[in-house]
Amino acid sequence: MANRASGGRTDPAPFAAALKAEIFGIDALDGVRDFAPERIAVAGGDGSIGCVAALAGELDVPLAVIPSGTANDFARANAIPLDIEAALKLAREGTELRPLELGRLSSGRPFVNVASAGLSSVAGRRAQPLKSRFGPLAYGMGAARAAATGKPLLVRVLVDQQEVYSAEAWQIMVACTGAFGGGSGIGATDATDGDLDVVIVPAGTRLGLARRAWGLRTKTIERQRSVSHFEGKVVEVELPAGSELNCDGEFVDGGLDYVTATANAFRLVVPG
């Protein structure tokens, strides 16, 4: 599978030749079922992986990832080589498999890293036009702009039907791997346990956002004072009308109102 619009490095022809594989576009997943593959490889960015991971799980075949997006946070989280040749070799020859969970928004959209609302969506929007020039550095630049202009959201959060938060927040993240934003993330996540991790950054001063940014960059955000961290099978988030979400680096209109996770949803080819 290849997403030609991802990262600027996803011409599928050389990938297919190296793998001796059939090419399918991300928008043609149904054709893969008829092909009856032994394994599926997806070339693209983080936003390309979720739907292909769901298909690999459905067909009960391994999933290989060739990271050709801008940030490639899922690959980093799973020690998949960022070098394309090394990733192709792993996709072709790798035998070590890691069972991973898959998150789903209420819309049915699957995700592998993080679905979030708040400053992360604002930062992603600010970073979008900068990616082609600055690559992963665009995420930090977008975050700086978001900190200067973003506003807290009034949110209510339930985890496994228990209310855990009801107040304003700068950001709420519902995570599998917890990786996002070109190297930022949530350190406490375990994408093999079948539980979603929920991290809520409460509203506060803009000056305090520098400390929150450091926590995200060092993957210690969930350990900071007043930051809330929960785990559960089902997460329900009430957001103001019109709130935009960032789901694995792509923007969606909604879906945090009922988020679920499936344990052992697919098997990822990883280095031995």
Distinctive features:
272 residues, two-stranded parallel sheet, globular, 2 domains, 28% helix, alpha+beta, Tumour Suppressor Smad4
Folded structure, characterized:
The protein is of the alpha+beta class and 272 residues long. Helix content is 28%, strand content 31%. It is built from nine helices and 15 strands. A hairpin with a 3-residue loop joins strand 8 (179-180) and strand 9 (184-185). It is globular, with a radius of gyration of 18 Å.
Break the fold down into its secondary structure elements and pairings.
Elements (H helix, E strand, L loop, with lengths): L11 H8 L10 H6 L4 E5 L4 H11 L3 E5 L5 H5 L6 H10 L3 E8 L5 E2 L2 E5 H9 L3 H4 L2 H13 L3 E7 L2 E14 L3 E2 L3 E2 L10 E7 L6 H9 L10 E5 L1 E5 L6 E3 L2 E3 L6 E11 L3
Parallel strand pairs: 1-2
Antiparallel strand pairs: 3-4, 3-15, 5-7, 5-13, 6-7, 6-12, 7-10, 8-9, 10-11, 12-15, 13-14
**Fraction of residues in H or I helices:** 25-40%
Radius of gyration: 18 Å
* Total beta strand runs: 15
The computed structural class is alpha+beta
The CATH class of the largest domain is identified as Mainly Beta
Annotated CATH topology of the largest domain: Tumour Suppressor Smad4
Global outline? globular
Whole-number total of structural domains: 2
Strand content: 25-35%
Number of helices: 9
Distance between the termini: 23 Å
Provide the low-confidence segments as ranges.
Answer: none
CATH architecture group name of the largest domain: Sandwich
Largest sheet: 11 strands, antiparallel
Mean pLDDT: 87
Order of helices and strands: HHEHEHHEEEHHHEEEEEHEEEEE
